[in-house]
TrEMBL record:
Pathway given in the UniProt record: Cofactor biosynthesis; (R)-pantothenate biosynthesis; (R)-pantoate from 3-methyl-2-oxobutanoate: step 2/2
Protein name: 2-dehydropantoate 2-reductase
Catalytic reaction list: (R)-pantoate + NADP(+) = 2-dehydropantoate + NADPH + H(+)
EC number: 1.1.1.169
Keywords: NADP, Oxidoreductase, Pantothenate biosynthesis
Protein function: Catalyzes the NADPH-dependent reduction of ketopantoate into pantoic acid.
GO MF terms held by the record: 2-dehydropantoate 2-reductase activity; NADP binding
GO biological process terms held by the UniProt record: pantothenate biosynthetic process
InterPro entries assigned: 6-PGluconate_DH-like_C_sf, 6PGD_dom2, ApbA, Ketopantoate_reductase, KPA_reductase, KPR_N, NAD(P)-bd_dom_sf
Domain of life, source organism: Bacteria
Transmembrane portions of the chain: none
Domain Ketopantoate reductase C-terminal: 164-284
Domain Ketopantoate reductase N-terminal, chain residue ranges per copy: 3-140
Amino acid sequence: MHWHLLGAGNLGTLAAFYFGQAGFAVRLAGRSATRRRLTLPDGTVHDLQLAGDDNAPITHLVLATKAAQSLGALAPLRARLNADTTLIRLQNGLGSLDGLPAPSPHIIEAIANSGAWREALPGGGEHVHLAAQNPTLFGDGHSTPPDWFAPLARHWPQLHWRTDIHLQQWLKLSVNAIINPLTALHDCDNGALLTDTALHPRLHALAAEVDQVASQLLPDWPGDTAGRALALAHATAANTSSMRADVRAGRVTEIDFINGYLLREAARLGIALPGQARLIAEVGALAPR
């Protein structure tokens, strides 16, 4: 068994490393070979030479592009995918594969909670720094993981199979819909959401909108999005959110698949979210969409 990788940024590089450690061959999809360097939190450094595309049928694919790039990046590969293809969607946000033409691959959702940043390597390629190794969750709604999961989990620290992956996605989306856009808008580290009390009324109002929608969609929704967002801001106080990093770099953000997804689900339920709509417009004015 070998895997193709679409998107060789922070998450893609991490996936390529751990799949390789588990003994799986990994090659890039739709591009030529490149190199990556990965520094783990313990300081160990690994140099990766990622093989280029072989143009063969794709049986197993890790999709690790930015959410907004998903359909466009997959389009040239459609003839190589089929209903038997396994696709791991390793991305922030939800809804990035809505509208994917049939036949749809078997999709396994993945939630990465590890923090990473990258810089250019002299002579080409990129150096990914994994700042913190946190749990990574895989799941497709079934209780039994596929055969390849066990060997992968032996090499990927804190990798877990979750039958409640949809709830876990919403738990992450809910705090990302608060922390990411507010830190991007105010150009601040996550910890500023704790220390700048002027931001608290807006944070709580946005969180209440999230809970209003999520409680309608998920019967076991725990609520208290504000409390969970503040707890995460405390735990990651010195971190820069991915959305803040994207705004600073002039890149397309993932707000349409975090707050935008929330807004689309609210509209389907007939719920107005004026705070979220305003936030999307404000962040959209700072970066391309």
